[in-house]
# Entry
Amino acid sequence: MRIYEAENYEEMSRKAANILAAQVILKPDCVLGLATGSTPIGTYDELVARCDSGDLDFSEVKTVNLDEYRGLTRDNDQSYYYFMHEHLFDRVNIDPANTNVPDGTEPDADKECARYEALIDSMGGVDIQLLGLGHNGHIGFNEPDSSFAQTTHCVDLTESTIEANKRFFASADDVPRQAYTMGIGTIMKAKKILLIVNGEAKADIVAKAFFGPVTPEVPASILQLHPDVVIVADKAALSKVPEQA
# Structure
């Protein structure tokens, strides 16, 4: 595990974009695992700027997203399908047919999760998986649990996650209660993992996840066991990392 410190959110976004851009340049037909939420928006803006300048070509890139709310249609402005098109896909020269997000409108959870897992396998796996970090240590929508979920599955969102996400909805009552998400096992199969995190509010969970015991009660702690993890975090998020680290 390598940790790169950034001065602030802007520098974190640039450093993360450097790593993703390098993957695309070295392997133009790579499979990018992508994330949503407020944290990666700056990183996507950086990638768009590089595409606009001609320094980055997405024409052969394939993508798979971590998760999607169950029950939201793709035209809902809070769906992750909508988010990805707004912040990245519609702004770069990627083939829409090469972009993949779980289908939140599929009512049969077992069917959709099996389809998505098979899709990732058919692409040869993920070359680099971008992750954010939830306040409770979740990655994707893998919430604290008694065991690590292995494959893509349907998850009941915790109250803390609903609370954290309600700012994007009219009220907490409008936040979906379930989501389809890659499992911990699926995430861990990625060849490389890039986790980005910023802000003092994440300092406690950064210290707990990456410098504490590996436990399903802190899902991100499993990343300590992955052979190729890069964390890009600002000073505030790293402010509670143990001195000896």
